[in-house]
Amino acid sequence: MPPQPDGRLRIAIDGPAGAGKSTVAKEVARRLGISYLDTGAMYRAAAWLALRFGIGLTDADSIANLLEQKPPRFTCDHDGNMEVYWSGERITEVLRTPEVSEAVSALSAHPRIRQILTSWQSEYGDEHDVVMDGRDIGTVVLPNAEVKVFLTADLKERAARRANELTRKGLTTSTEEMALAIEKRDAHDTGRTIAPLRQAPDAHRIDSTGRSVEEVVDSILSLVPWEYSS
Ligand code: CDP
Q: What is the pLDDT of residue 206?
């Protein structure tokens, strides 16, 4: 796609859980010196708020009200780092716990919550050069992104990566348990009516099974039009 009139570079990376989106998105952003926005962290922040305040996951309106009245703060630097704060508390790490992962899919299917978060994300894309990862970035949030990628990997490998990630953080889980959890979440994300997990027709499909982060990052960087390389 040729550069658009605003001259911005937006890279959309979508795909199922554990495909390696955030690791590669962060590195692509770092290599290009642009922002990285993890939209999953935004949905996770909404789920964390629900758990924190004991709000039922079906009570989307109360969660949406809280998001609007006291929004989490998302900060991005130009080195691929993103942090999440709520009321002065840094919540970046706690958003990755299994409790939040378990809760997030149910809540991310609610129209009002999606509408709030999607509008924050689109606004960010209007104002910044950014690598954004999620489920509906190429289809809904940034339909005119200059580069779109759909990143996949075998379920077994995705589950093993996720289990290792949690083990490194001192939480115990098996690859089998993880495979069940992410399969369930993917089914939920793919089956919902609003903004389901889908490959955009103009997205490049990259399978990261058995490939290093470096290789996947290089494949994505090779899709960036030459006009954007400094
Ligand atoms: O890192 P991982 O692939 O496990 O998930 P994530 O990107 O942190 O997203 C967590 C959940 O948020 C997903 O399972 C979706 O339910 C939801 N999500 C979404 O609906 N739309 C997005 N753009 C990003 C995440």
A: 98
